[in-house]
Write a structure and sequence with these properties.
With 283 residues, the protein is an alpha+beta fold. It has 7 helices and 11 strands. It is elongated and about 80 Å long.
Length: 283
């Protein structure tokens, strides 16, 4: 399976389907506040993984009840809940997928195809149950759960091996040593400009507003874009940095994500001024 998924990552022929689909998703899912909601911006982490718990949990529970006597009605109800909840989960997933890198989109396309087949099996299972063909309904439900399990495996590869929609910057915290690190003379820092510095070879951005200075990891949590090359914009009364790659927007006072595609906050480091020198440390 690992070798097969590696081949999928590298299979550019999938782009013939993926590229037009990406453009269609981006055209349909508007405006920005809808995209942000689907990315999980209000939660501070991606929404799609949370939504699929309802779907998978319902389908697994339905499978268990199918193995027990006298539970047809309950199993049918849970099958319906899982199938209906799969639709908004899929919409959130496609919204995330459209903002991924090409190799991630190829695997995500197969992930979506597997889950679409699972939904089709469960839709057939529901139709069979409602028509009184409970044995066929159970068979289609078990088939759907098997295909959904394959889709979940592919989704795990997408998240844990390829790093889709996980914070790309947080791992750099492990490269920073303990203790306070000097970043320069406080008096020399310009007002309301992005400055790039390094702590133990980890790139950070500095932003001064009055006597307050933010020190933030420079790598964008979404796809490692260079926030130090981004623009500073005002959003809802806050100074924010906009990633130059995909437009993810973060507040410069606390790192909170304001606009996606990132569903994760940017990492801010604690600071202090000692003898006129700005210092930062690990959280």
């Amino acid at each position: 399976m690992r070798a097969l998924l590696t081949k999928i990552e590298q299979n550019t022929r999938l782009d013939r389907v993926g590229d037009p689909l990406q453009r269609a998703v981006q055209a349909v899912l508007r405006p920005q506040r809808i995209r942000d909601l689907l990315h999980g911006v209000p939660l501070g982490h991606p929404l799609h993984p949370a939504m699929v718990q309802v779907t998978i949990g319902s389908w697994i529970s339905a499978a268990i009840l199918d193995l027990m006597p006298g539970q047809r009605r309950a199993a049918t109800t849970l099958t319906a809940v899982g199938t209906v909840s799969a639709v908004p989960a899929a919409v959130a997933g496609f919204n995330d997928w459209a903002a991924l890198a090409p190799d991630q989109r190829r695997v995500g396309l197969v992930h979506a195809a597997s889950n679409s087949l699972a939904v089709a099996c469960y839709a057939g299972s529901l139709a069979a149950r409602f028509s009184g063909q409970h044995r066929l309904g159970r068979t289609l439900g078990m088939a759907g759960l098997s295909v959904a399990s394959l889709g979940a495996y592919i989704g795990g590869h997408l998240a844990y091996k390829q790093g889709a929609q996980v914070s790309q910057s947080i791992s750099e915290l492990h490269l920073i040593s303990q203790g306070w690190h000097a970043l320069g003379d406080m008096a020399s820092l310009p007002q309301r400009q992005l400055i790039t510095k390094e702590i133990d070879d980890v790139s950070v951005i500095l932003y001064r507003h009055g006597d307050d200075v933010t020190v933030m990891l420079e790598r964008c949590p979404h796809q490692s874009g260079p926030l130090g090359q981004g623009e500073v914009q005002q959003v809802d009364g806050h100074d924010c940095v906009v990633c130059p790659w995909h437009g993810s927007t973060f507040r410069l006072d606390d790192g909170e994500v304001v606009h996606g595609p990132s569903g994760n906050d940017a990492q801010v480091l604690p600071t202090r001024v000692r003898n006129g020198m700005l210092e930062a440390r690990l959280p």
